[in-house]
Amino acid sequence: MGMKIIKAEKGYVQLEAVPGRQHLNVMGVVQGGVTASILDAATGCAIQTFLEAGVRFATIDLNVKYIKPVQSDGCILIAEGRTLHVSNRIGMAEGILKNKNGKLYACASATCMIFRKNSRSEITTLELTN
C-alpha cells in the first residue's frame, strides 16, 4: 500500500494512505495490522523530523487503540504523527488515523530507539548481533 507525505514540519507529519481490497480481512474491513502500519509510519516520520540525515531508528513499542473499523477499501485515510520527546537514544510520538471528513478510526503511541553513529545504543546492539 502506498503512503504519501502530505505535510511535514518539525515534530509533525501528515500522511495519506488508500487501502485496497488486498488489505481487507474476511469480514470486509481493513485489517488491524494495516491500521497499525500506517500509524507506525506516521509516528516514526514525526520522530524523524528531529533527526539528522543518516541517523536511523526503529520502533520498539507501538500501542494502537482501535476506535472504529475502517469499513471499506478505497477510502482515503489521513494519519497524523506528533513528536512528544526525542533524546539521544529514544523518541516518543503519538498518532491518529482518520478519514478526510475527520472520522477517527484509531490512535497510537510509539517509542523508537535511535541509532546515532558512535552512540552507546548502537554499539550495544551491534555487540548483541555478533
Care to describe what's here?
The chain has 130 residues and is of the alpha+beta class. It has one domain (3-129): Hotdog Thioesterase (Thiol Ester Dehydrase, Chain A, Roll), CATH 3.10.129. Helices cover 21% and strands 43% of the residues. It has a 6-stranded antiparallel β-sheet, covered by helices on one side. Strand 5 and strand 6 form a beta hairpin.
How would you name the oligomeric state of the polypeptide chains in this document?
Answer: single chain
Q: What Rg, in angstroms, do the CA atoms define?
A: 16 Å
Q: How many structural domains in the coordinates?
A: 1
Mean pLDDT: 90
Q: Can you list the strand order of the major beta sheet?
A: 1-2-4-5-6-3
Distance between the termini: 34 Å
* Poorly predicted runs of 5 or more residues: 121-127
- CATH fold-level topology: Thiol Ester Dehydrase, Chain A
Q: Going by CATH, what is the homologous superfamily? A: Hotdog Thioesterase
**Count of individual beta strands:** 6
Q: Please name the CATH architecture.
A: Roll
Strand fraction: 35-45%
Structural class: alpha+beta
Categorize the overall geometry. elongated
Summarize the structure.
By secondary structure, this protein is an alpha+beta fold. Helices cover 21% and strands 43% of the residues. The protein has 2 helices and 6 strands.
Mind sketching the topology for me?
Elements: E1 3-9, E2 12-17, H1 32-48, E3 56-66, E4 77-86, E5 90-99, E6 104-115, H2 120-129
Antiparallel strand pairs: 1-2, 2-4, 3-6, 4-5, 5-6
Question: Keywords for this structure?
Answer:
130 residues; alpha+beta; Thiol Ester Dehydrase, Chain A; 6-stranded antiparallel beta sheet
